[in-house]
Amino acid sequence: MRIANLAGRLVLLTEAGAVDVERASGQRFAADPHTVYARWDEFTAWAAEAPTADAEAFDEGDLRAPSPTPAQVFGVGLNYREHAAESGLGLPDSPAVFTKFPSCLTGPTGEITLTGSTVDWEVELVAVIGREARNVPAERGWAHVAGLTAGQDLSDRTVQLAGPAPQFSLGKSAPGFGPTGPWLVTPDEFADRDNLALSSEVNGEAVQKGRTNDLIFSVPELVARLSAILPLRPGDVIFTGTPSGVGQARSPQRFLAAGDELVTTIEGIGSMRHRFTDPS
């Protein structure tokens, strides 16, 4: 199953197009995409038998973040072996977790304003929670995931690394620095949900390429580790980490500039496309 946020309305995606959930369900489910995660089991049961005769073509430019207003947004650093190596650091014993503030979230297309000359790309698989998780063992982690989407953990490296202690959350939370999309895909749709190809391209040049089987802490393991500390709520978003190829680790270093186009792709999900503009 695939669902999307189409201009602020929850839709179910079919081969024929988009089905407006509020209208198709006779207002049983609200138009607000965020509200569906708190009723995920009820919704998926309905969606399996949902009427699709009124499916309509849609403009992908109208797509927004699949979980637009989560209570919590988690980022995980150094979660790919090759990325840890290019950063000159050893493999972590536990997830390196930081926060991306929810106001940074945006949709899968459009313009993003740069905050300076050191903004970096980081393609990431993003998991959205569909069932509350507290002290969940890893073997049950996938049962608490509503679905997967593509994301970019855009990072202003100057802000991130300023001061006596790193400011990860601030450096990664400027407006637009958390694009997700183009839609949410439920885990059952993937032939191998633990081994997906992901990539970034800048102006048509491949800058990142990896597979999620290189994750140090897998999606269910992250659910387990996080839920052991605090409750994960329906709609919460987890950016699971980035593979190697970030601009900061290059020699010479390379960062995003005004006019650059960033294309983010994950196997079985789809692509996002963003263009960057000068700081105001």
UniProtKB/TrEMBL annotation:
Protein name: Fumarylacetoacetate hydrolase family protein
Annotated Fumarylacetoacetase-like C-terminal domain residues: 73-276
Gene Ontology biological process: small molecule metabolic process
GO molecular function: hydrolase activity; metal ion binding
SUPFAM superfamilies: FAH
Xref: InterPro entries: FAH (IPR051121), Fumarylacetoacetase-like_C (IPR011234), Fumarylacetoacetase_C_sf (IPR036663)
UniProtKB keywords: Hydrolase, Metal-binding
Matching Pfam families: FAA_hydrolase
Organism: Amycolatopsis iheyensis
Protein family membership: Belongs to the FAH family.
